[in-house]
Here is the input.
Amino acid sequence: MRGRRALVLSMVVVAVGVLTAVAAYYLDPSRGTVGPMPGVGLTLPAETRVVTGLDVQRLVHSPVYQRFFSGANRPQAFTELQARTGLRAERDVQEVLLSSQAREGRTGAVAIVSGTFDRQRVVRAVEGQRGMSTRTHEGRALYVFHPDGAPSSALAFLEDDVLALGTEAEVEQAVTGYVRGTGGLRGNAELLALVQSIKPGATVWSAGDETLLSRLPSALPSAGGLPAMTLPGLKSVVFTGDLEPAVAFEAVIQTRDEKSAQQIAGMAGMIIGLARMQGGQRPEMQQLASAITVTTDQSRVRLNGSFSDDLLAALQKSQGQRGAGPGTTPGPPAPPAAPPSEPEGEAEER
Amino acid sequence: MSAATAAAADPVAAAPPRPGPVPFLRGARVVFDLSLEAMLWSRRSVFMGLLLVVPLLFAILYRVLLAAHAPVRITPALFFGGMFGSYYIWFALPLTALFYATALVADEVEAKTITYLLTRPVRRTSILLGKFAAYLGTTLALVLPSVVLTFFVLMTRQGRRGLALGAPDLVRDLAVAALALLAYGALFTFVGVLLRWPLITGLLFLYGWEWLSILPGWAPRLTIRAWLTSMHHHTVVGEGLSQGVVQTLPVVPGLITLGTSSLLFLALAAWIFSRRQYVLDQ
Here is the structure.
């Protein structure tokens, strides 16, 4: 039967084509990872000074988030993301990569958001925004927002479930890097090496290179009982943080030389000492100070901290009392804040 | 009285029992095989093949002339997207469906072979189902390789990276093309069964009614094209002429709408075909 043979041959052509394309998709370097950073992070502009990764699902399901950030204390960034894209970070977002860039005297920022969301729904939410225009860049749709009196920002889908949003030029660069598969963060070997040095698995991690730190003031003025201090030369900072089973962090600061490292360690020790001194009035500050250790290793300073649940509860209570102000008696506990309402039409469509 | 004597006395009772109609699916399969042969190796297929080879020729032209010798702003992905969003969705797919699906029954009527078909012990619904399956097989066999080959010619310009970037689009586009052939095919099968001259009605539908897809408000939801356009990701809403007009419709309701309408049109076509008296002109 010639007809059936032709049909089978045609389907073989289609199957081979699809399998080849899908294999290329899954074997693409952008599917790999660099340290804790997903491969798509390589599309961030080469001018990136600091890159931060956040495992959103681990964050929002942690006791710390429930205690400090749920309800009315929801992070502003999550609310803004929802307003702009209709995405509810707690439900739709898996991971966020935040980055900051500087080039020719101007700064920019771009975030890469990945998760499980319906692209069309996000597109419809974006299209509904006032002052939005659309254009294509490298064959991809670029949604540009023109807020009154502020620099324009943009949003683009790198994949169906990965979007880049931030300042327009930086999002454009991210799209270019993604589409061409060249350039991007690959051109910033120093920052890439820092990211590579971070062990995967942390809830939050961050790496900043010398260029970021060069913008810090070279001296801190006298304040809060601290004498004026001159900041030694810093080369890089790498930070990792976890929220479970206990809140713990590690910050590794690389300085120019051993002397600078001693200076940084001295400054950190002084701040911890001040916290200890408040221990008479506020015992939780004493505990907080005891939970942080500072060590030096040649030109490197390492800060480690681990905070128990009891300590966090004490800090929260103390914060609440200070917020109520002197002379006020604490009232009954407030009812839990209602979760933020969903955008119109979203609940019925789900 | 022996059985032989009884049979001799009553010849009607002695005749072998008349065979019943062929089982539904077996009948549909036989019709499918016969129709597939007839559809694939026909002048119509040659014409539609030429129509579907055009994007491939453009892709080769792009690779050989434009991309190789002149710096162009149109990337392979953009070119493929434009080709799929404009040529396939607006032109090639509806026309392919129109020319094949309206002819499923009309060709038999025109060739005066419908009588022979209907006198076979095969249910009419079985005939229509077999013919529609053959239509889907033929059109998919023509359209999908055309999309895949065009994709490969264009996207391999960027090497493996190009294929990796376009893979999700390719899979989605193939599914959208198949859905387009199903939805348009079911509609035109219904039109072909209902009307004597379905081709003109089909053309009026494609290049009249389907323009509602670019209107604001609810009108686009009444077209097949608007739902299909919302399912592939090649149209940038708000860009160019479509600024502020073309809408992105949700995918799941689109699948439900096109799936339901296809079933409805097929059921109506089967109902009309199974009841209609075909009187041939002498």
About this structure: Residues 159-194 of chain B form the longest helix (36 residues). The CA atoms of residues 77 and 155 of chain B lie 7 Å apart.
